[in-house]
Amino acid sequence: MRIITGKLKGRRFEIPKGMDVRPTTDRTRESIFNKIEAYKYIDGSVVLDLFGGSGSLGFEAISRGAKSVSYVDIEARNIQLIEKTALEFGIEAQVRTTISDVQRFLNGNPIPYDFIFCDPPYNYPWMDEMINQILDNSWLGEEGWFILEHDKYHNYKDHPHCFFSKAYGRTTVSIFEKHPVDSEKNQL
């Protein structure tokens, strides 16, 4: 994996064989960050990366100016890889990690984030409830975005908080706001 741009541009990290992760492709990652940078400021933002996996989305966010990223993943090996990579990149002070089931984590005390990245397994059984848990509680800041990667079998275009949804190959990216979107924002 490589960091696309920012202060870590071109830095690479390896994902050991046998790890059960599905890293966001360069094309999808670039599209997500292009959307963010067109409408938001990532500089100084506080990010939550649910299902952290390889950590690629959070590392890209830090490279582009995010203040910090908190990763949540149930797999200790994934968290160890994220911590190792953060140390190699010299950004360990900006990274927090939690080994936890995402559902259990989100049932805890919410902290508002500027951006929440979420790339669950495509067959994640708690998908719709997770979206509501994030939006109905205080996990997003007032202007925060919840960025969900999912497969084509889930469709959130009509969700009242979803203002963007686009397929990139097998992966669809849907972006939600804390408050229901108006029709003008649906035109993004």
Can you give a write-up of this model?
- The protein has 188 residues and is an alpha/beta fold.
- The protein is 27% helix and 25% strand.
- It is built from 5 helices and 7 strands, in the order αβαβαβαβαβββ.
- It has helices at residues 26-39, 56-63, 76-89, 102-106, 127-136, and strands at residues 46-50, 68-73, 95-99, 113-118, 140-150, 162-168, 171-177.
- It has a 7-stranded mixed β-sheet, with helices on one face.
- α2 links the parallel β1 and β2 (68-73).
- The protein is globular.
- The model has no long low-confidence stretch (mean pLDDT 93).
Short description:
By secondary structure, the protein is α/β, with parallel strands linked by helices. It contains 5 helices and 7 strands, in the order αβαβαβαβαβββ. The longest helix has 14 residues, at 26-39.
Major β-sheet strand ordering: 3-2-1-4-5-7-6
Order of helices and strands: HEHEHEHEHEEE
- The backbone outline, from C-alpha atoms, is globular
Low-confidence stretches: none
Secondary structure: number of strands: 7
Give the C-alpha Rg.
15 Å
Would you spell out the secondary-structure blueprint of this structure?
Blueprint: H1 26-39, E1 46-50, H2 56-63, E2 68-73, H3 76-89, E3 95-99, H4 102-106, E4 113-118, H5 127-136, E5 140-150, E6 162-168, E7 171-177
Parallel strand pairs: 1-2, 1-4, 2-3, 4-5
Antiparallel strand pairs: 5-7, 6-7
